[in-house]
Design brief:
By secondary structure, the chain is mainly beta. Helices cover 10% and strands 49% of the residues.
Length: 277
């Protein structure tokens, strides 16, 4: 019996950055152009510069083999690295860093609203769901508060997608810096766990200007799936082509530092020693 498969093309943002995703069983492949980069014009005046995309790349995670392949499709070369966490469960333990608490609490409230609207997309029934999230701090910090709204159309998750991306339980929040806030989560309405075909996100964040006044910055982005298929995929799609050549790094990539090479070499040695002894 063929494994569940999925292929879709997603277009993102005003730059219309497109990405093609493939899933078959536990394996995945992502095709894209690296970038975009700002070129030409005056770097001090971004409006005079143009967006330009780079080389065609593919990122393959072959979990059956326990390898990740980064491929430059134009130069016909690739790199390969072991995925220890997929190859042998329990053999790789990520380092967990501890942080000093800030003394603040961030209240994260997420409201999920099924509008009741339905329409057909790619032969599937899609539902319109609006997700609103607010971040408020105590002690009060109006300059740090922010809101987001995701207005999207979702379908029940395809089997291939669900196998690779099971619903996440619990909550997560990204915090940058040495001191961390204590999060408190509130959910209103059932969490949306479907596959998004079209999502428009609006984000509003407060900040203090040079005069100390609180201002609001608003940004918007859009993700749209323009192609979608659950037809079977060939297994060799998740391996570098035989005629491609393996290299240490892809064109235009910065060389790896000596210290990083030593750390990776030591980690690989410990991994192999632990397994083979």
């Amino acid at each position: 019996m063929a494994e569940a498969s999925l292929r879709y093309v997603i277009v993102q943002g005003e730059a219309h950055f497109s990405r093609t995703e493939y899933i078959c069983g536990r394996n995945s492949r992502s095709e894209y152009r690296n970038g975009p980069f700002l070129v030409g014009g005056d770097p001090k005046r971004p409006e005079t510069m143009q967006l330009e995309f780079g080389r065609r790349r593919a990122l393959i995670q072959n979990r059956d083999l326990g390898y990740q392949f980064d491929i430059d499709l134009e130069s016909r070369v690739y790199t390969a690295f072991e995925l220890h966490e997929y190859r042998r469960p329990g053999s790789f333990t990520p380092k967990v860093e501890s942080h000093e608490p800030s003394g603040r609490t961030v209240h994260v409230r997420t409201e999920t609203i099924d509008t009741g609207e339905r329409k057909e997309m790619f032969g599937y029934t899609a539902r319109r769901v609006i997700i609103r999230t607010t971040y408020r701090y105590s002690p009060d910090d109006d300059a740090g508060s922010r809101d987001s709204e995701a207005d999207g159309w979702y379908i029940d998750p395809p089997a291939a997608w669900l196998a690779l991306h099971p619903p996440i339980r619990g909550h997560a929040i990204l915090q940058i810096g040495g001191r961390t806030d204590t999060p408190v989560f509130t959910d209103v309405g059932p969490r949306e766990t479907g596959f998004p075909l079209l999502v428009t996100r609006t984000q509003r964040s407060n900040f203090k200007d040079a005069a100390g006044k609180i201002r609001t910055h608003t940004s918007e982005d859009r993700d749209e799936v323009v192609e979608f298929s659950e037809a079977p995929l060939p297994t060799d799609l998740f391996l570098p082509p035989r005629e491609f050549r393996r290299v240490r790094r892809l064109p235009d990539e910065a060389p790896m530092s000596f210290a990083l090479r030593m750390r990776l070499g030591w980690r690989n040695f410990k991994y192999k020693f632990r397994y083979w002894r």
